[in-house]
Design goal:
By secondary structure, the protein is α/β, with parallel strands linked by helices. 57% of the residues lie in helices and 13% in strands. The protein has 8 helices and 5 strands, in the order E-H-E-H-H-E-H-H-E-H-H-E-H.
């Protein structure tokens, strides 16, 4: 029995390409709503008209940014998203489910694009502290790079700027996410994304129930 249907909670889903985050975010939202919770589901970069415009520029724009500008563009989209959508939903007592958030900036811009250079990670950390608003719970859908690549090929469609990077980039991204999980085990739950869709759904919701019933893992 899930106990509290009134308090706001901020949940994020993270992971590399092909991990199934978007599908699992939708499944989680549907299950929570079926159980009587009020849910606001969103994504990053995006979530507001301005942030969606930045998303298109970052993922599909022809011009490239210097690394500082790329990080700041992600953070600008995030701040608009936070102030206009996420914070009001939390204040209203909803469960916010966000597909990507701060940890993706750390993994993609910090480790993937920035190769974990200290100056890049320090820059991201400083901006993260300014933007603030950390999730209560994060599900990291972890998947080996070769398995993710196979899934992306089967999925087809237009690839964005990050999906089209070399395998070394995606391995660095995975390393970045796993570092986050190691450093913040109270918040981050690592889920084996190689499992069946149904198995991943059950694993995520099992942890969700623990949080909703007891306020933590």
């Amino acid at each position: 029995m899930l106990l509290d249907k009134t308090g706001g909670m901020f949940v994020t889903l993270e992971g590399g390409e092909g991990a199934g985050k978007s599908s699992q975010a939708a499944y989680l939202a549907e299950q929570l709503e079926a159980d009587g919770f009020r849910v606001y589901k969103t994504r990053e970069p995006g979530g507001t008209p301005a942030a969606e415009a930045l998303r298109h520029l970052l993922l599909f724009g022809e011009a490239s940014f210097c690394w500082q500008a790329e990080v700041m563009a992600h953070m600008a989209a995030r701040m608009d998203h936070l102030e206009q959508k996420i914070k009001p939903a939390l204040a209203d007592g909803q469960i916010v489910i966000c597909d990507r958030y701060h940890d993706s900036t750390w993994a993609y811009q910090g480790f993937g694009m920035g190769a974990a250079r200290p100056e890049v990670l320090s820059f991201i950390t400083a901006l993260r502290q300014l933007v603030a608003c950390e999730p209560d719970l994060t599900f990291l859908l972890d998947i080996p790079v070769d398995v993710a690549h196979t899934r992306l090929v089967k999925r087809g469609g237009k690839t964005d700027r990050y999906e089209g990077q070399a395998s070394q980039f995606h391995q660095r991204v995975r390393d970045g996410f796993l570092q986050v999980a190691q450093q913040d085990p109270e918040r981050v739950v690592v889920v084996d994304a190689c499992a069946s869709i149904e198995g991943v759904k059950k694993e995520i919701y099992r942890h969700m129930q623990v949080w909703l019933e007891g306020g933590g893992m």
